[in-house]
Every structure is written in structure tokens, then in C-alpha cells.
Write a structure and sequence with these properties.
333 residues; 2 domains; 6-stranded mixed sheet; 12 strands
Amino acid sequence: MPKRFAVIILLVILSLSLFMCAEKKMKEGPLTISVIPKGTTHAFWQSIHAGAVKAGKELGVNVLWVGPEREDNRQQQIMLVDNQVVNQVDAIVLAPSDAVALRRPVKNAVRRGVPVVIIDSGLENSAEVYASFVATDNLKGGEIAADQLAKMLHGRGRIIMLRLLEGHASTGKREKGFLSALQRYPEIEITSAEQYGGATKASAQTAAENLLLRFRDGQGNFTVDGIFCVNESTTYGMLQALRRHRLAGQVKFVGFDAAASLLDAMKKDEIDGLVVQDPFKMGFLGVKTAVDFLNGKQVQKRIDTGVVFITKADIDKPEMQDFLFPDIEKWLQ
């Protein structure tokens, strides 16, 4: 090899080494983790935000909270994921608003060196891509709702279910679990399971009111014995519709999630039971798992954050206080 080519190669190697050292030096300091929820308005997402902030403070990392306002804005969420990759954050914690549409941006992020931890809702056929999946066992949550509602109805009656949105993996699993478990009760009839509430409480209330009007007999009597709603917004929308039609407390009603408004309604006997997740824990573990992965620690591929069923009798139990009423303001102030 001519001497001058050897010198050129040596200079190239030296330049690359200096560049890599400079890049490493530029990235020194606290890690930056972007947390991208499906939406930002519901109490559920505020609890996830608070848990993520707590993890950031305890672990000494920067937590960026960026998300669409509405849970049905898939394109905005895709854009946010792509932007965080361009901004060279160290990792992303993502609650995908669509199990299929978010696969491309997640794969792109990982390909460009930004690991992704999935929370709340899964991605179809992408387990080999993301670092970990931190979420409720939503199938189990739906099954619990079915068994509890069937128990309240003594194993017989007519039931309606209000869904959320097409493409939502988390609520889709709840719906599947609920309908599957009800097959164990031959004297229970599912009279409606195809209605979607939409992304907001207002749209959920409209859908709920349409259902309530649909199931009236010739004398105007409501002909449904039990109702299941799959998340906070659909539960709240149905609650408002039941109140408006003077049916609150007159029909067995099981919802999902533990927003303050829903717990207050339970105290008034307007809601009979709630399937409750732990969004604060989900936000905390989402960030912690991302940090562990970045630090080279082995992380579990699937982390179950737990789900329980509560009734009015459980609300004031001391052991339930931190679970139902996390100090969100402390972390989001």
C-alpha cells in the first residue's frame, strides 16, 4: 500500500474517532425520555403523566410530555413520534393510538437508535421491535367486568356495551374479554355491542343517549338490565346520559377507570362497579423501564401493572387510597 494512502486512511480513522468522541461529549448529561400518550385531556393520562414525572425526578432524567389532545388523532401522534426521533431524544415511551398505524414510526425510531417502550396499548406484530410492553391485562379487565355484572344480574338479563374507538388495542381487548366471558352465562343476552362512543366525553354521551332511546318499549320503559363501558370517557358519557334520562341508579352499570367524577357517582349509587387500572404506576414503570434499557439492564418484555374491581364499599378503605387517589398535583405542579 502506498504510504500516502496509508496516511489518508489513518487520517480518516482519526477524524471518525474525533467525531464519535465529540458526539458522545455532546450527549453527556441527563437522559431525555419522551412520553407520548394517546391523548392529554382525560384523568387517566394525567395520572400517567404524574407517574412519568415522578420516575424522571427519582432517576435523574428529563421527561418530555408530548401528545395529541384527542385520542383519535393518529396522524398527530405519528408526527410527534417522528419529531422526537429527529430531536434525538434518548428513548420514547409511547401509548399507541392505533395498533397498526403506529408500527411504522416505532420501527423507524428503533432503526435510528431510539428505543421505544410501549405502554397502555399494544402494537400488532411488532414485539421484536419495542423494548418492553408495560400495561394492564385488558383482556382480564374485560372478563372481570363481565363476571361482576353477571353476578349483579344473578346470571340473567339484557346487556349493552359501549365501545370506544376502532383500532384501540387496549379497549379492544376489554371488549373481547367482556364478550367472551359472557358466553358462560346463557341467560344473559347482549342486545348491543357495536356502538362506538368516540374520542371525547361529549361524543360518548351522544352515543349513549342514542342507545338509551333505542331500547325503550311501547310504554317508554327502558328494556336493558345492565351496561358496560370500556374506559373513562365512555363511562362518563353514559353516566351523563343516564342522569339526563332519569335512569341513573335504575340499571346495573359497570365502567372502567377511576376518575374522581366516576368515584363520586359510585358513592351516589349511580355506578355499581369500576374496573380500575393503575395509570400512575404505568407512567412510572414506562420511564423506569426505558432508563433501565438504555443503561444496559435486562428488562422484561411484558410488565403487567395490575387491574382490580371496586365497588362503593372499597372507596374509603385505607389500602385503596394511594391506588385510587394518587397525588397528581404534587408531580404536575
